[in-house]
Amino acid sequence: MKDCVFCKIVSGEFPCYKIYEDDYTLAFLDIAGDCYGHTLVVPKKHCQNILDCDGETLARVTATVQKVAQHFVKCGFEGVNVLNANGACAEQSVFHLHVHVIPRAPQDGIEAWPFKDKHDFDMQSVCDRLTMCK
Fold it and tell me: Which whole-number Å values give the CA distances from 49 to 12, 40, 61, 81, 126, in the listed order?
């Protein structure tokens, strides 16, 4: 896609700090610089998000996410956060599928789980709305 910044990174038109690359995916540092080692994993084939991505491409992205996460642990981190946003209302900012992999260490100060208040949802009605098991 000609106006997609991630497609331009994949094609080499825009530079990046590569962490990993194979025939189908690319992992590179997020230039936002908000967290040490914050990495984005993208498919080389353009798709907007997981909602329109074919299963094979999504599986390859997931495999690369796992490789990157395992590598971060080998580099001395104790864990990772894996984050993905799909659609504008979910705060997706670049409409090319991407998965954030953020290396984590104890007391690193990153708040990756913002939900602090418990809500009193009617769990049965939530399940009724969302179930695929009918």
Answer: 21, 13, 11, 18, 24
Which residues does the annotation mark as catalytic?
98
Give the model's confidence band at 81: pLDDT under 50 very low, under 70 low, under 90 confident, else very high: very high
Whether 114 shows a pLDDT value over 70: the answer reads no
pLDDT tens digits, residue range 36-68?
A: 999 999 999 999 999 999 999 999 999 999 999
Alpha-carbon gap, residue 134 to 131, rounded angstroms: 7
Measured CA to CA, the distance from residue 39 to residue 76 in angstroms comes to 16
Contact by Cβ (8 Å): 25, 43 = yes
Residue 116 has pLDDT above 70, yes or no: no
Please report the domains of the chain, with CATH numbers, ordered by start residue.
Answer: 5-130 (3.30.428.10)
Tell me the torsion sign for CA atoms 9, 12, 15, 16: positive
Paired residues of 47 in beta bridges: none
